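Hi! If you just cloned this repository, the fastest way to understand the data is to look at a raw example. We've pasted two of them here, unedited. The first protein comes first, obviously.
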Amino acid sequence: MSFPRVLVTSCRELCTRAPRTPYGTHRDKTFGNQQRLLRIGIAAAVLALAVWGIWAYLQRTVMWNMLDLSVYYNAVDSLKDNQDALYTSNFGTWKLPFIYPPFSALTFFGLVPMGFAGLKWFMTVTSLLALAAVVWTSWGMLGYRRSAGRAGATLATFAVVLWFEPVVWTLEWGQVNLALLAVLMFDLGQPDTRRWKGVGVGLAAGFKLTPLIFIVYLAMTRRFRAAGVALGTFLGTIGLGFVLLPSASAKYWSDIAEINNRVSEQLPVGTLNNQSVQGMFRRMLDSESLSSMLWLLCCAALAILVMVAAAKASLAGQELLGVVLVGVLSLLVSPISWSHHWVWVVPAFVLLLHHALRLRRRMWWYATAAFLAFYGTWPLSLDVDGHWDGGQKLQPWGLIWLAPRDGKRENRWNVWQYFVGNSYLFVGIALTVLVAWWVLRTTAAAETGAETEAEPADVAPRPRAEKVAAES
C-alpha cells in the first residue's frame, strides 16, 4: 500500500462512529519464576539506589544543587510578598524566569514551609517513587496482571532505567518530569470504564501545558468522556489560579508567549541541551524566521503521522505504544525539550524489553541494548568542547554532550558534531516515524483483509448474539 492510501484509510477509520473495545479490561500476562524474579528485582533496585546515592554524595557540589528546583522554590516563596513578581522577575541560583502556569505555583506553595533543604529531599524521594510507578504502570498497560512477578520486573527495570540520562538529570536538577510522567501514565493506564479517567491528564496540563496533547489523543481514540474530564479539569486549574492568584494569572494568560520567550534570554533555544525540532533548526540556521517556518512545517507533518498512528495503535489494543508515540511527539514539537524532558524513554524501554522477552529474537535484544547504551548516562569529565578534562567534575553525561556546547559553539559544529549533538532528536524522530508507519501499514492491511473476507456477508452465519435473538 502506498503512503497516501494508508494514511487516508487510517483517517477514514478514525472518523467512523464504530465503538472501540474498552481498554483495561484484560490482564492475562504474567512472568515465570515470580519469587525468584522478585528477589532479583529487590537486589538490583537496592544496589542501583546505593550506587546512585554514593555518587550523588561524592559529587554533591554538582549533583545536589538542584538549580531548577531553586527557581521553583524562590519563585513560589516570592508569592508571600508580591504575586506580580512571579512572571516578571528571575529566581534561583542561575536567575531564571518561572514560566509554568499559576496552578504549578500553587502546588509548590504548600511545600515552601519545608525549606529548600527539605524540598530537595522531598523531590528526590518523589521522583524515585514516580520512576517506579511509571515502570509498574507500563508493565500493566502491556497486560501484565498484578503479581510478585510484575513487582520483580518493575524493580529490576527500575534498577536499569535509573541510569538513563534524562532520569539522572531530572534528579540532579530537581525537576518535575518524572512526577508529571507518573501522573499521566497512571491516568492513561486506567480502564476506560473509570469515570474519573482524564483527571490526571488535566492536572498535568494545568501544571505544564505540554500534556494538553493527550486530550487530543483521547478524543481521537473516541474516549470522549475522558477527554471531556481532562479538559474540564484543566479549565478548573485555570479557574483556581484566577481565584487564588488573580494578578499572576491575568499576567500569565495574557502574555503567555512573552513569558515563555523569556527563557531564551538566559538559555538560547539553539543550545545543545534543547533536543527539539526547533532547537535543531536554530543550531543549523542563522535566520530565526526561516528556522521557525521549517519547525512549524516539520511539526505539522510529524503531528499528523504520529497522532493518527497512535490512535490506530490504541484502537488495536496497543495502548502503551499509542501513549509513548504521543509522549515522544510532544518532545519533538515542543519549542523547548531539554534533555531531561526525555523521560519518555522509560516507558519506551519497557515496551522494547517486553517485545524482547515475548518474541525471544536477537534483533529485539540488540535493539534494547542499543537503546539503553544510547540514552544511558556515563560517568565522564567533559569540558564545554565535549573533550575529556580531568579537572572537571565526574558527572552523568549522555552521548549528546560529546559535542561542543554553550557560547554559540553549536553554530560552529562540523558534520560529525552536528549528528552527535542532535542525536537524541534524530534517533527519536527515526524510531517514531518507523514505528508510526509500521502501525499504519499493518492496521490498514488488517482492515483491507478483513473487508475482503467479509464480502460474502449474505451467506455468512449470523453472529451468535443475533442468532440467539432470532431463535428466541
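Ok, and the second one:
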Amino acid sequence: MVAVDEQLRVGLVGAGPWARSVHAPGLADHPGTRLAAVWARRPEAAAELALPHGAAVAETPEELLSSVDAVAFAVPPAIQADIAIEAARRGKHVILEKPVASTVDEAERLARTVDEAGVASLVMLTRRFAPETEEHLAHLRETGGWTGGNVRWLNGALLEGPYSRSPWRHERGPLDDIGPHAIDLLDAALGRITDVIAAHRSDTGLWHLVFGHEGGATSSVSLSMALPLNPGVSEVSVYGEHGYRVLADRGTDAQQCYTNLLDDFVALVDSGARAHRCDVHRGLHLQRVIDQARRKAEAAR
C-alpha cells in the first residue's frame, strides 16, 4: 500500500452504478485519497452518493474543480472528455474511464493537455490492475513466440442489470464499452496493434474483429452485450510455439482492482512520475483502434 503525507482531495464526476459500487467507496476508503466532492447531471443522485461519504455536492463541474487536487470520472465519454480537458488544464490529476473520449480528435486533445499540464493520468482498464493479469502478461513477454490470440467477451449487460438502461452503451455498443478492455489485453499480450484487418457488426450487435500486431501476430475478437448469457463469457487466450494459454483470472474483483489503481495513482502524483502502462496515451491508442474498427465495419456494410 502506498503511504503519503497528505490525502489527495478527489472529486468524482458521475453518480451512476459504477460510481456507486466502485469509484466512491474506493476513493473514500483508500488511505491516500479522500472523496471531497461529487458532481452529476442529477443533483439528487450526486447528493445520495456524496453524503454517506462526507463529500460535498458540487452544483457545477467548475465548482468541483475549484475544490480538489484530482478528478475521477464515471460518466459517458462525450461528457468526460470536455471536463477532463478542463481539469488537466487547471492542473488536476485525472482518473479516466474508457473510452477516454467519443472521438479520436477529443482523445488527442485530452492527451496533449495532460502532457502540457504535467498531471498524472490513469485509465480504468480494470483487469490490468489485477495482479494475476500483470503476472501472466509478464510471463508471455518473457517467453515470446506467440503468433495469435483471441478474445470472447459476451454478456447480456444491455438486456438486464444496472447498465441495461445506459443510453450511451446502447448507442455505441460493445465496441466502445467492453472493446477497450479486450483490445488492451490483446495488445499487451501480443504486441502493439498496428492494423484492423477486418471488422463486422451484425444486426444483433455482435462484433467480430481481426487485428494485426507489431511483430506479425494476428488476433480475433468477438464482442456482444446483448446475449442472454448468465454468467457471461470473458476469455482471453494466446497461442504459439509454447502452446495455448488462457489469461489467468483468480477472481480479483473490480473494487480491489480500483484500489490497486489508486495505489499507482497516488504513487504517480507523489513521485512526480507520469508514464504508466495505463495512462492517457494508452487510452488514446485504444481510441484510435476503436475508430479504425468502426470505420472499417461501416465501409463494409
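That's it. A detail worth noticing about the second one: The longest strand covers residues 146-154.
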